[in-house]
Specification:
Length: about 250
C-alpha cells in the first residue's frame, strides 16, 4: 500500500499529520512561529542513523541521507498569547511510530531522535535551525507545553532507549510528575485491561500534554469514550487544566 518514497507514514500529503485548535481569545503570534519540517536528520549531532544489520553499511544511501528529514511530519513551535498576557509556546509534533521496521530499527531510532529534538530544543542546542534559517532553541525563560502523539511509552513498548523517560519527563524544564489517568472504563470491555494512564486502545501511554515548570497543573485525565458516537480514534483524548501565571506587572 506504500510507495516506499515518503518522508513519513501516509499515502497522501497530510495524512497522519496534526492540527492545533485554539480558543478565539487566544492569539497566535504568527510572526514568531517556527517550523522544523525540513530539518535534516543528519544535522543532529550523535544521531541514531540506522545501519544495515547484515553489512554494517548505512541503511540509507548517501544521497538519501543528505535529504532525509528528522521530522516524519513536522515539529512546530507556536507562540500563543493568552488573555492574561502570558505567552506560551505550544511545541507540537507527531513522531513516527517506534515500530513497523526491522533489525535496522529505522523507525525506532527516528522516533527517539524526533523526541530528543524537543529535549535539545529546551536546552537551547546551537545545532538547531528552523525552516526559515533561524538558529537555536527555546529561550530559557519561555513558558511552553509539549503536545502530541509522541508514539513512545516511558515504561513499555518498543521505543528505543526510552526517550520519553530519559529525555523529556526528566528534563529540568518539564513538569512531568503529573500523569493524567482515566476515571471511567469506557464502552469497550477490553479497555478494562488497560492501565489507567494508557492513552491508546492497544495499551500504551503515548499521547502527552507536558507543561513547563512555571505552569501549575490543577487537574487532568485520559477520557475513554462512553458512547459509540464519541469513539473517533484508537487514541483517547488527554486533557489538563492549567494555571499560567500572568507576566509581572499584569
Amino acid at each position: 500500500a506504500y510507495g516506499a518514497d515518503n518522508w513519513g507514514f501516509g499515502t497522501f500529503p497530510g495524512q497522519y499529520s496534526m492540527a492545533l485548535l485554539l480558543r478565539e481569545d487566544f492569539e497566535v503570534l504568527e510572526d514568531r512561529v517556527r517550523t522544523f519540517q525540513l530539518f535534516p536528520w543528519s544535522s543532529m549531532p550523535d544521531n541514531l542513523a540506522p545501519v544495515d544489520p547484515e553489512t554494517g553499511d548505512p541503511w540509507y544511501s548517501e544521497q538519501e541521507w543528505s535529504w532525509f528529514r528528522l521530522s516524519s511530519k513536522s515539529h512546530w513551535d507556536v507562540p500563543v498569547r493568552l488573555p492574561n498576557g502570558a505567552v506560551v509556546h505550544f511545541l507540537v509534533s507527531h513522531p513516527t511510530p517506534a515500530a513497523f521496521d526491522g533489525e535496522e530499527q529505522r523507525n525506532q531510532k527516528r522516533n527517539h531522535d524526533e523526541i530528543r529534538f524537543w529535549a535539545d530544543y529546551l536546552s537551547g542546542a546551537s545545532y538547531i535551525y528552523d525552516d526559515q534559517g533561524e538558529v537555536g532553541g527555546l529561550a530559557p525563560d519561555a513558558s511552553f507545553i509539549i503536545l502530541g502523539d509522541l508514539n513512545a511509552d516511558p515504561q513499555k513498548g518498543s521505543s528505543y532507549n526510552d526517550p520519553m523517560g530519559r529525555l523529556i519527563l526528566s528534563h529540568p524544564r518539564v513538569r512531568g510528575d503529573f500523569v493524567p489517568a482515566t476515571r471511567s472504563p469506557g464502552i469497550d470491555p477490553k479497555w478494562a485491561e488497560l492501565d489507567d494512564v494508557d492513552t491508546a486502545q492497544w495499551g500504551m501511554r503515548i499521547d502527552y500534554v507536558l507543561p513547563s515548570q512555571d505552569i501549575a497543573v490543577r487537574d487532568g485525565a485520559v477520557e475513554r469514550p462512553t458512547t459509540e458516537a464519541a469513539r473517533v480514534s484508537d487514541h483517547f483524548p488527554v486533557w489538563l487544566d492549567l494555571t499560567v501565571p500572568a507576566p509581572s506587572g499584569r
